[in-house]
Structures are given as structure tokens and as C-alpha cells.
Amino acid sequence: MFDRSPGRPSGRPTMTATAPPPLAADLTEGLCRLKLGTMRRLAPDLLVTAKTQRWTLEEFFRTLLTAEISARDESNTRTRFKAAAFPVTKTLAECDVTSPRCRTFDYLASLEWFRAAENVCLIGPDGTLARTYSDRRNAPTRIYSS
């Protein structure tokens, strides 16, 4: 929108920021019913951007879909972490292992055993370094990868 008010000293039009028009009620209701909250939230702004930049329908839909998928992935990760009830969120990347067991930790961190559906058996008394690091530090990696 241009502001051509006579009180402007330069007389040049200036752009004023306006809120994008809301989606039609039926679209909002449909997105709500399908539980596409991110699409519903982003669609008005993206419609304006798409019209301004002359996006194709495919580009517009891909952008909305990518945003929705990303939001759901983040939500799923938060839900998994909450369900796992970790006392502290840590990863193997934060682990500073300078012992010969480093190769073992690298193997656990690679998740090759997880993708191959193999079991990992950690033997030792409760509270040993290997068991503590493997259990508490590798579980967040498994949550991200699933």
C-alpha cells in the first residue's frame, strides 16, 4: 500500500506495513480439522509472499508442506524426550572419552547396531561409566533418528 497523504514533505509515496488478509473461513476450518496448525498459521503471510514473488502453486504448496513437516518433527522429538523422562538432555557428541573405549562409543553413536536391529549388551556394576554414558547419552540420538 502507498501512503500519498498531502502532509508528506517529499511528496513521494512510502510503503506501509499491513497485515495479510486472513484465510477464508472454510480454509481455516479445514486446516483446523486436519490438524495442520503450522499451515494455518503461515498461509496468510505465504500467500502474500507467493503473489508478490509470483510463485507457482507447487512452490507455495512445497513451502507450506515443508514447514508443517518440520513443525511436526520438532513436536514429535519434544514428545519423545518428555516420554523418556531424561534427567538431563545429553548426547554422545558432548561426551569427552579419551580412553581406548572411544571406538566403542563411536560405534554406539553411529547407530549401526540400531539400524541393523541388533541388541547391545552392556555388562558391569550399576553406575559404571560405560553403562551410564551409553544409556543416558545414546538414547537422545535414538530418539532423533527414529
How are the secondary structure elements laid out?
Blueprint: E1 2-3, E2 14-15, H1 25-33, H2 37-53, H3 57-84, H4 102-110, H5 112-115, H6 129-145
Antiparallel strand pairs: 1-2
How does this structure look, described?
The chain has 146 residues and is an all-alpha fold. The protein folds into 2 domains: 2-84, no CATH class; 92-145, no CATH class. 58% of the residues lie in helices and 3% in strands. The protein has helices at residues 25-33, 37-53, 57-84, 102-110, 112-115, 129-145; strands spanning 2-3, 14-15. A two-stranded antiparallel sheet has the order 1-2. Helix 2 (37-53) runs antiparallel to helix 3. Mean pLDDT is 75; it is low at 1-5 and 129-134.
In whole angstroms, the N-to-C terminal distance is 47 Å
The assigned structural class equals mainly alpha
Biggest β-sheet strands, sense, barrel: 2 strands, antiparallel
- The helix fraction, in percent, is 55-70%
What amount of the residues lies in strands?
A: under 5%
Number of helices: 6
Order of helices and strands: EEHHHHHH
Neighbour order of strands in the largest sheet:
1-2
Number of domains: 2
Number of strands: 2
Tell me, briefly, the overall form.
elongated
Computed CA radius of gyration, to the nearest angstrom: 26 Å
Give the averaged pLDDT, no decimals.
75
Low-confidence stretches: 1-5, 129-134
